[in-house]
Design brief:
The chain is built from 16 helices and 19 strands. The chain is elongated and about 85 Å long. The chain has 2 domains: 10-158, 3-Layer(aba) Sandwich (Leucine Aminopeptidase, subunit E, domain 1), CATH 3.40.220.10; 173-491, Zn peptidases (Aminopeptidase). It has 495 residues and is of the alpha/beta class. It has an 8-stranded mixed β-sheet with strand order 7-8-10-9-13-17-14-15, sandwiched between helices. Strands 1-6-5-2-4-3 form a 6-stranded mixed β-sheet, sandwiched between helices. It has a 3-stranded mixed β-sheet with strand order 11-12-16. Helix 5 (122-132) runs parallel beside helix 6 (160-185), helix 6 runs antiparallel to helix 10 and helix 13 crosses helix 16. Residues 264, 266, 341, 343 line the site of manganese (II) ion.
Length: 495
């Protein structure tokens, strides 16, 4: 087993002389108007005007901002490649981050020197490099890997110390996103409810408080909907509470609630075999909540945020819940379990109720890989948002847009919630085939106090992708960590 340390960027001062002798790849910048900074000029001089020729080419003139050009085996340079990034000195956050992603993609196993002078968005570009430069090698044996180690990316900056401190926040975000991805990529025989709770307990070293409620505690609290989901598994249910207190005690916290189904077989309403292995990611909501809290603690956010994750495994067995069973939720409402595969809402309804009763939050956001139906609606491009509050929902949409993480609002309302009427109990856990993700959200809404601004985010389509996504290689994306971090920065920090 090999655990790869996240890429660390090495920051050095600007050094014109070093350019000739640097090996690997050197990246320099030229503005769309063809202006070179001193570092690019130096390369141009060394290579007897190859950058001047590039600037004059149709290729350069007609290409979009953010494009990378390469000049292989340049004259009088030890480098094997010079990459020229066509970009404004001041550009948008997204263009800068995207350029970073492109640089990381071409990196391979050679060293890179980013000689981007005083490019104004260098932090964001480096964030793009870091986010894309992710590998999950926990289960590859060392022999099967041809590992490149160490600081393979060096950044030249005229004020290295200042730049290092600016990069700190980007690293906090990178750490949160990587925590989320690592948890999602981990298989379910390793990441049991027990192991998940242990990994979250380790976050206390970042300065947050961790509390773990065990099976008995959940029983005493009356969380029978949650417990019913786990009763067929030999892994015990656990509710982990992560509290970050960066603001005064009298500030009501934001509550983040995550679905943490470590594996979803469907239970007695068993899922078909094809693709069932993907259900190792059914704890994606819990992983995002953990990632956000880790980022907040790492960057010492001036906010109070409490994260609650319901950890459980949905298995068929002699002790498993049956279709038709009726359970009483912590709120007191009875639920007829029509389909044991609609388990996420049964976990969330109790955890959300507990979050509101105990923490009296100023707002609540839950994240869950809740329905296959959201993938039918929105594919892998957008998470589905459902809300009882236009302000909060718009703030989440704005933050998602700012971070280039897709999100789209879906409706709620009486015509949907009435589909959950049960003949025998107060409600049933499925509403039929039509509007599957909306009736799932409508179920959750019944467990939200009307005065609490609430957004439900269905991340079933975006938590993990089969091909690479904007900021990540194939697999877990970490969708939502950046969006929620930005939401909190914009709306839930004091001072
Ligand atoms: N975990 C699944 C939803 C899911 C599907 C997540 C695909 C990621 C990818 C959820 O628990 C589930 O099984 N939902 C059912 C609900 C149905 C039984 C009403 C579904 O979507 O089919
Ligand atoms: Mn399910
Ligand atoms: Zn599920």
């Amino acid at each position: 087993m090999k655990t790869i340390k996240p890429l660390n960027l090495k920051i050095i001062g600007s050094d014109l002389e070093a350019l000739a002798t640097t090996t690997g790849i050197i990246v320099v910048l030229i503005t769309p108007k063809g202006v070179m900074d001193p570092l690019a000029k130096r390369i141009n001089k060394l290579t007897r005007g190859s950058l001047t020729r590039l600037i004059g080419s149709k290729h350069f003139i007609e290409s979009d901002t953010g494009k990378l050009f390469s000049i292989d085996f340049p004259e009088r340079c030890a480098a094997e490649k010079i990459c020229v990034l066509k970009i404004e000195r001041r550009t948008s956050k997204l263009i800068a981050r995207k350029a970073g992603v492109e640089i990381a993609k071409m990196k391979g196993s050679v060293e890179i020197l980013l000689a981007l002078g005083n490019f104004a968005n260098l932090v964001e570009l480096c964030k793009g490099v870091m986010l894309r430069e992710y590998k999950f090698y926990n289960h590859k044996t060392e022999d099967s890997l041809n590992l490149e180690d160490g600081d393979l990316i060096t950044v030249m900056h005229k004020e290295p110390e200042i730049f290092k401190s600016e990069l700190n926040e980007a690293e906090a975000i990178r750490d949160g996103v990587f925590l989320t991805r690592n948890l999602i990529n981990e298989p379910s025989n390793i990441l049991t409810t027990e192991e998940f709770a242990n990994r979250l307990a380790e976050l206390s070293k970042l300065g947050m408080k961790i509390e773990i409620l065990e099976d008995d505690d959940l029983r005493n609290l009356g969380m029978n909907a949650f417990l019913g989901v786990g009763q067929g598994s030999s892994s015990p249910c656990k509710l982990v509470i992560m509290s970050w207190s960066g603001a005064n005690d009298d500030v009501a916290p934001l509550a983040l609630v995550g679905k943490g189904v470590v594996f979803d077989t469907g239970g007695i309403s068993l899922k078909p075999a094809g693709g069932m292995e993907d259900m190792t990611m059914d704890m994606g909501g819990a992983a995002v909540v953990a990632g956000v809290l880790a980022t907040l603690a790492r960057r010492k956010s001036a906010s109070n945020v409490v994260g609650l994750v319901g950890l459980v495994e949905n298995m068929p067995s002699g002790t498993a819940q049956r279709p038709g069973d009726i359970v009483k939720s912590m709120k007191g409402d009875t639920i007829e379990v029509i389909n044991t595969d609609a388990e996420g809402r049964l976990v969330l309804c109790d955890v959300m109720w507990y979050a509101q009763e105990r923490f009296k939050p100023s707002a609540m956001i839950d994240l869950a890989t809740l329905t296959g139906a959201i993938i039918v609606s929105l594919g892998h491009e957008n998470a589905g948002l459902f809300s009882n509050n236009d302000w909060l929902c718009n703030e989440v949409l704005k933050a998602a847009d700012f971070e280039n993480e897709g999100a789209w609002r879906m409706p709620l309302g009486k015509p949907y919630s009435k589909l959950l009427k049960s003949r025998l109990a107060d409600i049933k856990n499925v509403g039929g085939r039509a509007a599957g993700s909306i009736t799932a959200a409508a179920f959750l809404e019944k467990f939200v106090k009307p005065e609490i601004p609430w957004v439900h985010i269905d991340i079933a389509g975006v938590a993990q992708t089969k091909s690479e996504s904007d900021h990540a290689p194939a697999g877990a994306t970490g969708w939502g960590v950046m969006t929620l971090d930005t939401l909190i920065k914009n709306n839930f920090e004091c001072g």
